[in-house]
Structure formats: structure tokens, C-alpha cells
UniProtKB/TrEMBL annotation, chains A, B:
It comes from Rhodococcus zopfii. This is Hydroxylase. Residues 27-204 form the Ferritin-like domain. It comes from the Bacteria.
Length: 234, 234
């Protein structure tokens, strides 16, 4: 996802030309752990946001997306177990940042919750998939598996497009909301990196250098804009 | 589950000696629909109850149980679609009773939520599995699939047993709680039957007559007591 369709993808080539980050890099367990806590917190955020749904169909759609997050959690649990890492201790350092992201971006309307479910997951997926491209194949395959689409996108796209076609006020509000989601995600990602040395080292090894990290964030913005456009938000 | 281990199982034999309830009985769609709404409401009840958990491990256990409910929902969705039945309209008549069950049995402590997750699901499973034994095989297989254990029982059993071994006050409270869950479940089941003619007809056809329904409720009480005993509540 991401790089192959991005006009600025060429900027990441130096990173991909390097040898892959070895599977025993200490940052790998941290990467799995932050992804695992991401799944749990997404599960509970979706379950909570479903209360804003005006219809039972909407609640079912969010429940199904939430359920998919748990199946990804199980994959990460198994991957950490195989490395002899206790998942609950490993997730602990990431709770504050991820909880802060959700606390700063609690939807106040049903449409905000749908945009967050669609766009927020996409931002995270772009970031991790770019990193995955530079990891040892057995690590990359776990990362890609847990970032697979959680489905029900069609439902979200239809609901949001219909609403913003009817109301330019709603469209303006949701455009701002999308920008805020991207900003908060990048802020919290940087905070996580600053706190977790092994993970930061993995990301820097994966991307090559700081210039490539900047280029990665640029590509994430391009992908974000595309996803917003799919929702009629452009 | 249920009948084969129950000392009073023999009482149901007349029902099983009859020809199976045909797959095109109009109550079958209602049976699938009530099961489907049961899965959705269990999903959101578990997600909500998880807030009472003192640990992340507990929240994960409930999230995993909730996710399993959604996979059962998908099975029922497919089964209703195959019959040309629109699931959301079909579930509508059951919302009030099932929501009332959950509203009357909202846990106020983490242990109450664990007992409800374990024992409440078991009561429903006993009832539907007894009915399944008398249905056409293609219908029975759907019912049995969606009533399969949602896992994580070991976690629940360990948490509850440990707590009640330490505190006889807690044990007394949870014994009463279990009795209330059974009572509310039977009350709401009878209410559903009184409202939904086709489903009531299916249950009566399935069980043979009212004497057999009474025997079924007796067996459910026996199974309930066994499940409570597993939790150290006897």
C-alpha cells in the first residue's frame, strides 16, 4: 500500500536498496507490541463510537470492524509468544501515547467516527507498510497480515459521501477533522519514537536516514489526501 | 451440549422420536434472527462490561469473546440471506426483549460481568441446542455452529474461582446474581415466544408439547447449576 502509487515513492529507494532489517533486531518486538496495543485500543474505540450510530446496520458495521482488529491481535500475540515476549508487559510503554491519540480524537458525531475508522486506520497502515518493506520477510509478513483491510469500507464510504454531498457545512467540518486526525497521529508517532529507543532505531535503520523519514511523512500526507477524496472530502 | 450429560435428559425423548421440524418452517428465519440479534447485543454488552476490568488482560479476554460473537453473526447473516430474508428487518421484533434482558442484568462489578459472560451465554446455548436436536440437519448445523464456545472460559473460571475462594461474601453475592440471570433469561424467552407466533410454533413442534417444554426448563436449571459449580459457586 502507499509507496507504489505515490508520486514521491522514488524518494524511498535508498532505504529499499539496503539489506533488510534482521528479524532479531530488538525493535521488532516493540513494533509487534505497539501494533498489538493499537488493535486493542481500536477495538474499544470502535465499540464505543458505535453508540453514535443512528441505525443498527451502522452498529453492526463497526462491530465487524472491531472484531477484525481482535483477529489481528491474536496474530501479534502468537508472533510475540514465538519470540518469548510477554505481550502485556511489552504493550505497556505504548498505552499512554495510543490512549492519548484516542482521547484527543474522540468523535462527537457518527460521521466523525466513520471518517476516523476509515482514515485513522489508513494513516497507521501507510506508516507500518512502508517500514514492513525494509524488514526481514518473516517479520514483514506478520506486519502486512495485521494491516490488511478490516472490511466494511464500502459502508463507510457510502455513508460519508452521501452526507457530504448533501451538506457543504458537514463537508468543511469533516475536512478539518481529517486534518486533525493526521496531525495527532504524526504527533503521537513521534512521541512513541522519542520514548522507545529500539523501535526508533528500527525505523531509522528501515528508512535509511532522517531525510527518508521526512519523505515518508510526505508520502503519508499524499495517501491521506487520496483517502479523504474517496470519502468525497477534497 | 446440555442434554447428553443431564440426568433428566430422558424426558426429552418423545420430542426426538418425531420427524425433524422441516427446514422451511416459517419459525426458522425467526430463530436465526433472534440468534443474530443475540450476537450483536452480546458483542456490545461485553465491550461495555470490559470497562469494569481492573487489568488489560481482562479487557482483552472480553474483547476476544465479543469478536467471536461477530463471527457467529456473519454465519447467521449468510444463512438468512440464503433464505432471501433481510436480517435487519428480521431482527427488529427481538430488540426489545433482548435489550430488556441486558438492561435488567447490567453488571455492577467486574466479577458480575465475568459470571454473566460465562453463565448467560450458557443458558442461551442450552435452550437453542435442545431445539437444534429436533430441526432439519441443515438448520441444526447453523444453530450448533453459532453456539460453539466463544473461548476464554479458562480465564473467566480462574478469575471467578480465585475471588470466591477468598471471600464468602462475594460468593453469596454471585450466587444470587447467577440465579437472577437464569430468571431473567427465562422470563424474556417466554416473552419472545408470546410475541412471535412462528417461533413459538417451531419450539412447540420441536419439543412435542408443553410438558416437554417444562422438562426442558428443568434441564436448563440443572445445567445452569453445573456451570455455576465450575465457577466455585455451589
Amino acid at each position: 500500500m502507499g509507496a507504489e502509487t505515490s508520486p514521491s515513492a522514488a524518494a524511498s529507494e535508498p532505504a529499499f536498496a539496503q539489506a533488510p532489517v534482521p528479524a532479531d533486531h530488538p525493535g521488532v518486538a516493540e513494533l509487534f507490541a505497539v501494533l498489538a496495543y493499537g488493535e486493542i485500543s481500536a477495538f474499544y474505540r470502535l465499540a464505543e463510537d458505535a453508540k453514535l450510530s443512528p441505525t443498527l446496520r451502522g452498529r453492526v458495521a463497526l462491530a465487524s470492524m472491531a472484531a477484525a482488529e481482535m483477529s489481528h491481535f491474536e496474530t501479534l500475540h502468537a508472533a510475540l509468544e514465538a519470540r518469548g515476549v510477554e505481550i502485556y508487559a511489552a504493550m505497556e510503554p505504548f498505552r499512554r501515547s495510543l490512549d492519548a491519540y484516542h482521547a484527543c480524537t474522540t468523535p462527537s458525531t457518527w460521521l466523525e467516527s466513520l471518517v476516523k475508522a476509515h482514515v485513522g486506520d489508513g494513516i497507521a497502515a501507510d506508516f507500518y507498510c512502508e517500514i514492513a518493506g525494509t524488514l526481514a520477510p518473516e517479520v514483514a509478513s506478520v506486519v502486512r497480515e495485521v494491516l490488511a483491510e478490516t472490511g466494511h469500507s464500502e459502508f463507510v464510504v457510502h455513508e460519508v459521501r452521501t452526507a457530504v454531498e448533501k451538506s457543504s457545512l458537514e463537508k468543511d467540518r469533516l475536512m478539518l477533522w481529517g486534518r486533525r486526525l493526521l496531525g495527532e497521529a504524526i504527533t503521537q508517532a513521534q512521541y512513541v519514537m522519542a520514548q522507545q529507543e529500539d523501535l526508533a532505531d528500527l525505523v531509522i535503520t528501515a528508512t535509511g536516514d532522517l531525510t527518508n523519514i521526512a519523505a515518508l511523512f510526505d508520502r503519508m500526507q499524499v495517501e491521506h489526501a487520496k483517502r479523504m477524496a474517496v470519502l468525497g472530502l477534497h
